[in-house]
Request: fold
Amino acid sequence: MEKMKMETENIAKKNIEKIASLFPGCVKEYRNANGDIEKQIDYDQLKILLGDYGTDLEEKFEFSWVGKRSAIKDANSPIRKTLRPCVDKSIDWNTTENIYIEGDNLETLKLLQEGYLERVKLIYIDPPYNTGNDFVYADDYSLSKEEYEIQKGDITDQGVRLVRNTDSNGRFHSDWCSMMYPRLMLARNLLAPDGAIFISIDDHEADNLKKICDEVFGEEQFVANISWQRTYSMRNDSKGIPSEAEHILVYSKQAEWMPNRLARTEEMDEKYTSIDGDPRRWSSVTLNAPGAATHQGMVYAIQQPITGELMYPPTGRCWSLGQQQMLEGMSEWCSYELKSIDDYEKRCEICGSEKGVSPDTKAIMISGDFEEEQRKAKQIYDEGEMMKKPWPSFIFSSKGKGGLRRKQYLDVSAGRVATNLWMYDEVGHTGEAYKELSNLFGGKSPFDTPKPVRLLERIIDIATDENSIIMDFFSGSGTTAHAVMKANSKDGGHRKFILVQIPEEYRFDGYNNLCEIGEKRIQLAAENISSNLSSIDIGMRVFRVDEGNMNDIYYSADRYSQGIVAAMESNIKPDRTDLDLLFGCIIDWGLPLSLPYTSEEIFGVRVHTYNNGDLIACFDENVPEAVVKEIAKRQPIRVVFRDSSFLNSPSKINVGEIFKLLAPDTAVKVI
Reply:
């Protein structure tokens, strides 16, 4: 029976497997220091197979720094960590789909790789700005906790080393880049195909961050560098050019990502009227578009029905609708037909084509007697102006004697397009954010310059739908969670958040670290939002990153004799509960953390069912055959037992036979 890995995926090995599937001839086997057979890339052979594209370049454009290779290795290397449930810190543990994780975000991103692969619609992060006093993570999984403590740096209660990255440090920018690079690599894997990441940053590292993102996400995935006006007042003693704005870099998972439209403003709607008595309010919009050179068949004359003049699109532009649709629209005024006229040179001029245009393109001309058709058109115009009888969908400027336009109705008009300039009156400023926190925490704010909820609401509005997963792995005070709940309260959505924060020491009014403040802020915001609304998810499941559930013997049992293994204690750490083991298996099997589960006793044995059979787990000792059969009859997708659930190897073999008979499609593993 197969054992569960109980460690994160080795991304480097997965990449080797991908290369092997394309170029099997350049993957060789070798025996490592432990005597195990592993695969390795033959780079020389790979270069030969790639031909000219595999040669070494003496000169190339690249972005590099001291420690970049190690940063990439950090992203790809596996870890033996887990997420331990903190039910006592959670809100609505049994029903919520929101997740809050205490711990190092690089470790967390590794733990979430399989369960949330391409499932996150929006990632927003507000990382340290590297101003000269910020802490950065010192990622080194080869060091023990004791070695961490020997080295210079502050240690969190989880053994994660934080180093103050001062501007006197020779690796000032390098340390920051090395901290960001692997996290963004892993974050990209979690983004949905139609997802996007928004990153707040100031001038100190904005340039370096863009270069990193160009590498990780691809230059073609760059969406915008948004300028957010973070302050509404400037100190008079500011020197040089005061900084009013911060950057928000935006990258998408795939090219040509389109954000949602923003809600329309009253000012925009005021432009829509009904001067002709049309029951639907409208505004006139142009009927031409750029692209005459590539759409020459959409460049032709249209005869004005009242003046009789020939109308053309401006130079370099073409009509924006197909000719048949244009003919139908003009025919609402009077009788029209397609007709060839002598305007070849005029169309060449508009298209800017020296090679000429098609001579077969016809004009839209009035048919029949011109004076009679002109009379009909003038009557339609006068009735609309004087008698409020609605005009046709195509209209004319200058009292009916000008250029061609069309009605754009308010009830079908799209919202505003989001630009790269966000002013504080629309999305808030740091002063507003300070007041928001002060109001929640009894008049005192834990932070001086938090992000306002309206800023995150704007991002959520343009980058998510009502069922999106939203992640923030530098969550700080928890503004993202607050904004998600508020967005749901407005439109009845079911957006879910995943927040990650290292429990960095931070003293404030009885709170000891950033996680305590963030969790309390979410609780207070939830209470505030839910006071008049009870239908949204305002809870959170809290987890804590910790050492793995398994003792070292679990990962190397094959190197010990059976006698030694039998004499040793359990391969599971003694302080771990069934809930710890259940969620350890959920992570290992790549399931989301937010699904419902139940626990029950079957013939005196505790059995856990996750999401109605996505996983059934039993961690009791000496599980009777009747329990195994009952689990198999339910035909779950996955089942996991404790290795010590069976008396001996024959018992374990018998379990496999039971599942082959009753649930042949169920995957069965042990820990």
